[in-house]
Amino acid sequence: MGCCVGEKHNNWCEEYGIVYIDAEGKEYCIFHAPADCKFVKFYDERKGGEKPALMDAEQFNGMVFERIDAVIEAGVDEERDKFDFSNWNPRCNFSGTIFPYSISFNEYDGQNDKYLPPINFISSQFSGDADFRSSQFSKNAYFISSQFSGDADFSSSQFSGDADFRSSQFSKNAYFISSQFSGDADFSSSQFSGDADFRSSQFSKNAYFISSQFSGDADFRSSQFSKNAYFISSQFSGDADFRSSQFSKNAYFISSQFSGDADFRSSQFSGDADFRSSQFSKNAYFISSQFSGDADFSSSQFSGDADFRSSQFSKNAYFISSQFSGDADFRSSQFSKNAYFISSQFSGDADFRSSQFSGDADFRSSQFSKNADFNNAEIQKQAKFTDVKFVKSSFDQMEFKGPVYFDNSIFEKEASFRNAIFHEYSNFEQTKFNNSVSFRHALFKEWSYFRNVEFNGETSFAGAISKETIVVENVDLSNFYFAETNIESFKFTECTWPRKENGRRTIADEISPRESSKGLSFTKLEEIYRRLKKVARENNDEMQASTWHYNEKEMLRKKMREENGPGIIEKLGTKTCELLPCNIEIAKTKLSKLIETSEQKRTPFLRFINTTYWIVSGYGEEPLRAGIWLLILIFGAMILACFGPDSNPPSDFITKWMWYMPLIKVNLSADGLHYLLKGLSVTLITLQAALFGFALRNKLRR
């Protein structure tokens, strides 16, 4: 019949006799017999009896070497050794062989014409160590579905043809240190139970590790992949070390799993690097790596820290829908083309300090759960942060050289844009700043839009400069502080301003307690209101101009009172109030608000004029108040009419009253005192009428 195993492998062993028949009647040659049944002479399990001695290691390995040497001595036979993918039967065929002992092939190192011819180890079992160090495989070497129970050492081996280790099992350590693969190297679906060491190996053609499993550490340091490298769906249970590796073509790590640390420091990817849907359970190191082609980490998961410091991305970098559970470090990285971080999630700190984006930087719909640090970074083209959620973020000294989009983004905690430079259009429409935000000393070279923005924390543009206009539209400015702000750069449209208890519109700087760090002196507040008035007039917003004019004068009045104390009028009013039959404290409070006056080094006359101007017309902004005072003066002249002047014949009361009115000529004889009172009445009524007309004009114009 022949060997039952050899029948499955082209009966390459038919020239060897049967040495063992099992209880079921299956026959085995010396190469395919089980390890414990490789007898020195024939034995039939069915007949029983004493079993012969087992063939020792020297005898069995000698038969292997004898078969190899015979092929070498016979010379090249390309027709016989021609590769047939479906049914390859070279002269040096060991498919299905069980190697019961450790065996060394390192004598076939190419010296003295000692080399391994085209060889087939498909489905072979190496029970001991397999030593192929420095071996030279002149053609194809097939180890498909082979099992290595001991260490497998292929260090410094040279594979001139294809090396096929598909579905092989390495129960202990596998060494391929400094090995050279001139043809395709295929380790797809292989299992490495121990460490897999491929340090300094060279893969001249494609390298396949598809669905391979590395239970121990996988070491590919300084390896060179001249063609494509396929690690699709591979599993690295231990550490995966690819430091200083070179991938000359495309590298595919799609859906790979790295349970230990993944170290690609200083690696070079000359083609595309595809890590889509990969999982990094621990730390991933890509420090100083170079990606000359596209780098795609879309949908990848980084459970530990992801370190891309000083990495270079020469083409597009894709991190779409990636998840960073630990810290993500991209400090000093360079993105020469577009960088896509769309819908990415950063659960730890995200560090992009000093990074350079030569193309677009797209972070739309991303989430930063901790610190997002872009200090000193630079984006040459569009910066897209639309619909992004930040917790704490910093963009200090960052340069946005293209358009900037932060629309619909949310900043939960502090946000800082100190000394940032916006070279092009910037859009913050419908952005929410739920905590403080600072644009201190920022530079806006083009238009900036803050439409429907929510400033829920302290907001400062102190020292910010804009060559164009910063449009603030439909925004609640209750937390917007104007101290040291270049107000002339702003345009406020349909904004909601904070109000004081009396309903007067104001700014957050005035509401803050003056003894606090944010409190300002009345002098600075006066200046802010003066500049706000200027901006409002330039924008033809007369209503706002009226408000800021009133507040400007109000700050002047309060400053004068603070520096010199209450004036004579206020003191007199307070004394009068104490004699009135009313709620004295309320009356004193109202009166003190009404007539606080005086300014340092100013004359009592100027203090009196300033106070009077406020009382009788609200600084020319309240026609109702001016009108009431005008009526008081007109009807107050009735009191003077009751006391003269007398006339002959006696005139009626109305005539006497009209005598004290301006622009009305009434002939009455009067003495000097009455002419003095008439002059005073005419002057006061005329001045008040002018103030009323001025206030009414301002009201109607606005």
In angstroms, what separates the terminal alpha carbons?
Answer: 114 Å
* DSSP summary: helix tally: 11
Low-confidence blocks of residues: 593-602
Globular, elongated, flat, extended or rod-shaped: what is the shape?
Answer: rod-shaped
Topology:
Layout: E1 18-21, E2 27-29, E3 43-44, H1 57-74, H2 78-81, E4 92-93, E5 98-99, E6 103-104, E7 119-120, E8 125-126, E9 130-131, E10 136-137, E11 141-142, E12 147-148, E13 152-153, E14 158-159, E15 163-164, E16 169-170, E17 174-175, E18 180-181, E19 185-186, E20 191-192, E21 196-197, E22 202-203, E23 207-208, E24 213-214, E25 218-219, E26 224-225, E27 229-230, E28 235-236, E29 240-241, E30 246-247, E31 251-252, E32 257-258, E33 262-263, E34 268-269, E35 273-274, E36 279-280, E37 284-285, E38 290-291, E39 295-296, E40 301-302, E41 306-307, E42 312-313, E43 317-318, E44 323-324, E45 328-329, E46 334-335, E47 339-340, E48 345-346, E49 350-351, E50 356-357, E51 361-362, E52 367-373, E53 378-379, E54 383-384, E55 389-394, E56 399-400, E57 404-405, E58 410-411, E59 415-416, E60 421-422, E61 426-427, E62 432-433, E63 437-438, E64 443-444, E65 448-451, E66 454-455, E67 459-460, E68 465-466, E69 470-473, E70 480-481, E71 490-493, H3 508-511, H4 522-538, H5 542-564, H6 568-579, H7 584-594, H8 604-617, H9 623-641, ...
Parallel strand pairs: 1-3, 4-7, 5-8, 6-9, 7-11, 8-12, 9-13, 10-14, 11-15, 12-16, 13-17, 14-18, 15-19, 16-20, 17-21, 18-22, 19-23, 20-24, 21-25, 22-26, 23-27, 24-28, 25-29, 26-30, 27-31, 28-32, 29-33, 30-34, 31-35, 32-36, 33-37, 34-38, 35-39, 36-40, 37-41, 38-42, 39-43, 40-44, 41-45, 42-46, ...
Antiparallel strand pairs: 1-2
Helix pairs in contact: 4-5, 5-8, 6-7, 9-10, 9-11
